[in-house]
Write a structure and sequence with these properties.
Layout: H1 2-8, E1 15-17, H2 29-39, E2 46-48, H3 56-65, E3 70-72, E4 95-97
Parallel strand pairs: 1-2, 2-3, 3-4
Helix pairs in contact: 2-3
């Protein structure tokens, strides 16, 4: 990440995607937090899906414990339950909710 940041400079927004929601092997919360802490110095625009999409509470926890904005695909209402108004992610400004695009299906 240091190499990428040096190459593109501070003015370019860098986003990373863990694709954890589409993987059989997922990170636990401790691993995800360690990765986010390691990425903090690099001023990411966001990190998408550091945890499986079935763990929005984990995304909320990461949002409280790191400065890296967390993007979760928690609005995929076609395959998963819709977001309720009291969903934990709505309460954390460091968590970005991204709707699934039809292409991701």
């Amino acid at each position: 990440m240091a190499f990428i940041r040096r190459q593109v400079g501070k003015d370019v927004k860098v986003m990373l995607d863990g694709h954890i929601g589409n993987s059989l092997r997922t990170w636990d919360r401790g691993t995800a937090l360690a990765v986010m802490k390691a990425l903090e110095p690099y001023d990411l625009f966001f990190f998408e899906e550091p945890l499986h999409y079935t763990d929005p509470w984990g995304d909320a926890e990461l949002g409280r414990r790191t400065v890296v904005p967390i993007a979760g695909a928690a609005l995929d209402t076609h395959y998963h339950c819709p977001m309720a108004a009291d969903h934990p992610l709505w309460r954390f400004p460091n968590v970005i909710l991204t709707p699934q695009s039809p292409a991701r299906g």
